[in-house]
Write a structure and sequence with these properties.
Blueprint (H helix, E strand, L loop, with lengths): L10 H27 L5 H7 L11 H21 L3 H8 L7 H19 L6 E4 L4 H32 L1 H5 L26 H11 L3 E3 H29 L1 H9 L12
Antiparallel strand pairs: 1-2
Helix pairs in contact: 1-5, 3-5, 3-9, 6-8, 8-9
Amino acid sequence: MEPLPARDLSLSARLAWFVVNLTLGILPTLLFFAWVEQDTDIPAVAHAFGWPWVELPMESVGEKLIWDAGLFALFAFLHSFFAQVGVQDRVRAVVPAPVVRSFYLAVSGSALFLMMGLWQHTGVKVWRLPLSAEAEAWAAGIVFAIPAVIVLWLVARLGFWDFLGWAQLFGPAAPVVRTAGTPALRTTGIYGHVRHPVYTGLLMMFLLGPTLSLDRLAVFAAALAYLSVGIPVEERKLIRLFGREYAVYRRRVPALLPTGRRVI
């Protein structure tokens, strides 16, 4: 099938896809980060959506962790599968090119929402600093916000509206393929310390805080495992894109931790 031409997408269709983008993609993703920041437990949200949708008869913490890891693996599979250029080409044969990014975000966001709705909490705390409730809330917010701001700044440098899919829906820009890489290789500034600073920031958001539940630690561990597989796959594409320049950069700069040695 040939890709559907962008001119066939009416304004009403663009607005409809914007609603899909927002409600199934961006809002569930923002909710996921808030859920992580709150140690995977936001009582008001859980009550509003009836989480968990299913309470499985699991007695051991290990069983719950295996189940939760499976939920994250489902998200990771969908997130990676629909990011593949070949898959996006097939999607583009079904929906117009300007909505491919919105479709991708909707799939990823829906998978995150499903994961949160089916998550089986362990009820285990790994650590908790001896702080008052008010001090703990302030500390948690600040520690979470610092890497979050860095991540947003980095995404903005790469093209914030393209990342959200809004430029493709409403602007003249050509559709952006999720895995095509950046137009220019960045090796200076923060990229001179780690090759994937966005991922480093996300991992910091998942792990750091005055309190840490086993559930939040499980999210961190699952994300780290996902990146340990995903980064080599992504970098093979970057080597095809930038050639020897990226291969030299990869040997010189660590992936995630600015240790002076290669990590992952």
